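note to self: the first set is below, dont mix up w the second
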Amino acid sequence: MSRFGVALRLLGLILFFVLIVGPQALSLRFGWPLAERLPVAFHRLFLRLFGVRVVERGRPPGAVPTLVLSNHVSWLDIPVIGSRRPLSFIAKSEIEGWPVIGLFAKLQRSVFIDRARRKATAEVNQAVAHRLMRGEAIVLFAEGTTGDGTRLLPFRSSLVGAARAALTEPGLERIHLQPLAVSYVRRNGLPVTRRERPEIAWYGDMELAPHLGLFLKGGPLDAVVTWGEPIAFDPASDRKTATAEAEAAVRALIQAPPAAPEAPRLRPPVPRAAPVVASEPKSA
């Protein structure tokens, strides 16, 4: 993608963001349904502009309050997951202060956690519990950090305590913990190689700006979002056991071989009509 093309796409994205900031803020304040739709539209526009195609598999969260436990590969996970349906994320507190990104995270009703504070986990659990009680789906990147996309880091069970906190409220008897696997499988139509992983995965001490540059130069990208079977979580459930079960499910989904791209559907050939032979008139 040329610099001019990148600049043009960024300009379009910025203009759309400016247009939706006001309506989104008002929708959040007055509880309008538009507050759930605008972030999805923004994520889908971003993916379309920058050549990211997402294939969704499995059954997404339903009517039961759901805490989604996902792996975390890159900043790109946010628009990839957020483009599928209305969701909120649990994010680290540093993001809240980032220009533009922090504002958008707030407008998407993200829950921020300061991992340096001991009391932060309990506070976030209460905030997430309140949201789960309202029937919302919240995404937790359960590894606590990003990985390189080739292996899954251990899931942390501390924030799954939000599910336990929500169950203490009257009228809520069960919550779902739903595994979610995000994989980046093809670039420019070819399988992603280990050498290309640093252009997609954002982990360790990588600087964001150079990583964005590599992503923009890389070409079209195919991502797969796979929902695992929900795990019922009730007052008798063990938090660590349920977290380990979700981790095993995500690991199995990641290690599953990617399905081949769907072949284009061809229309069956239209049968040709038999030629009409004109009969000769009978002689008198």
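second set (the one i keep forgetting abt)
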Amino acid sequence: MSGRESRRGARRIGLALGVCAAVAGAADAHAQEPPEPDERVTISGRVVDQVTRSPLSGVLVEIRDLGVGVETDSVGRFEVRGIRLGVYSFAFSRTGYRPSTGELAVLRPGSFVTAMIPITAGAELAAGRFVGLVTDESGAPIANAEVQIPSAFMGALTREDGRFRFDAVPPGLHRVEFSFLGRATRVETVEVASGLTSDATVRLPVQPIEVDPIEVVVERREVFLEDIGFYERRSSGFGEFIDLEAIEQRAPNLITDLFTTLPGALLVPSPYNPLERSVVLRGGRLGRGGLTGGGDHCYPMVVIDGQITHRGGSTPAQIDYLIESSAIAGIEVFPSSVGVPVQFGGLDAACGVIVIWSRR
């Protein structure tokens, strides 16, 4: 079973791990030559509350293989220097939170984010979601395959497109059974994290032969964004999408900071204040300024939480004043009218559309 492509920023975790960690190396780090095997590198990380996503200070971070232990600072960060390349066992502990452990492959200098589950007296953790696809050996979807989660008393048949979905799955490890008449039954262990979506693809062979272990991708999906179609539109291939995890990693001071490296977007001086910036998309790069700013531009339409707040055209929306960057859960950017959903203007959005979703 193979996970979805990492272009979504998905978190890949071992099936038996109790920690949801995402290795988030900077783009320039990927461009560097990999260090020599004996070279020592520095890794850093940040620990957050899985429910509130706020940083956690005072978390004891242990690398048990090396006998090393450090604590997170006031913003949840820690750093360990002088580590050789290899795979290490990490442990995280803090009063009021479930201890968690996991393995991390150190391949180059970099950083990662880990979430810890709070122990809340008298309250249950938010349920998770388990979705996926059942296919045959060629990758063709299998309809009416049976998917069972006995520990949660849940069961369903796959749709015509081979997909299935379980909402309100209790957090934790679950044995999941996949079966279809005439094909080998598979039983796999899947971790469902509180408030997150686990996405899996399962291949059912005709004969009960040995197959590779499945890989489950646990993405930090905001449930309300999934419900309004944010992730489905992202998978369509049209537009550029910035999810909450990417926003938090960038930690922008202004919304326009998120557009500095976005394909199809250009920042130009605001006609109201040359010290401020406005966003012009590919469909609005008109007139004398060309691609370098200035001249006559057609500014994009702006939609916030499904409502059109600026219709675009000859005046910019000044999005830095419309909503605080810390209040944003996701952004959809359609640089031209191609692929713009009807509810966001469709073909009428000739200069592009910026769709902003606030946090819930």
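remember for set 2: The chain has four helices and 24 strands.
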